[in-house]
């Protein structure tokens, strides 16, 4: 899909103000509502807009500990990776899972939990029990400096 300035402006605005009405969005980009809505739908159908969600304050939910967890696997086979990814996707505390290169790890996880006891349970009773996990290195986040930054459209 070829993006023009209107499409890019729509993407920029919706990333930071996802609750804009179509009328407000149209006003801000300088189009009438009908063509604006057609463009938004085309961006959704093309897969550029993959969803809409609310950003929730983890601390206000009692989730005060964020950990970055590097996972090493015993074998680098598609089956082993698929098994790990399936198992890790079932853990609600894991909010992000990245297959990475350039580290002594194969995956980086971002986990958000209540406290250190909850992290210990997650690590020892669930993550390390996934077949193929041979190493775990955890860093605890002191403060988020940038979170949920919009992509440059």
UniProtKB/TrEMBL annotation:
Q: Which InterPro entries match?
A: ArsR-like_HTH, AsnC-type_HTH_dom, Dimeric_a/b-barrel, Tscrpt_reg_AsnC-like, Tscrpt_reg_AsnC/Lrp_C, Tscrpt_reg_HTH_AsnC-type_CS, WH-like_DNA-bd_sf, WH_DNA-bd_sf
What organism does the UniProt record list as the source? Rugosibacter aromaticivorans
Would the keyword DNA-binding be found if you checked this record's keyword annotation?
Answer: yes
GO molecular function: any one?
sequence-specific DNA binding
- Signal sequence residues: none
Example of a GO cellular component annotation carried by this entry: cytosol
GO biological processes: regulation of DNA-templated transcription; response to amino acid
Query: Any idea where the HTH asnC-type domain is?
Result: 3-64
Mind telling me which PANTHER family this protein's record contains?
LEUCINE-RESPONSIVE REGULATORY PROTEIN, TRANSCRIPTIONAL REGULATOR AZLB
What is the name listed in the Swiss-Prot or TrEMBL entry for this protein?
AsnC family transcriptional regulator
The protein's superkingdom reads: Bacteria
Q: Which UniProt keywords apply?
A: DNA-binding, Transcription, Transcription regulation
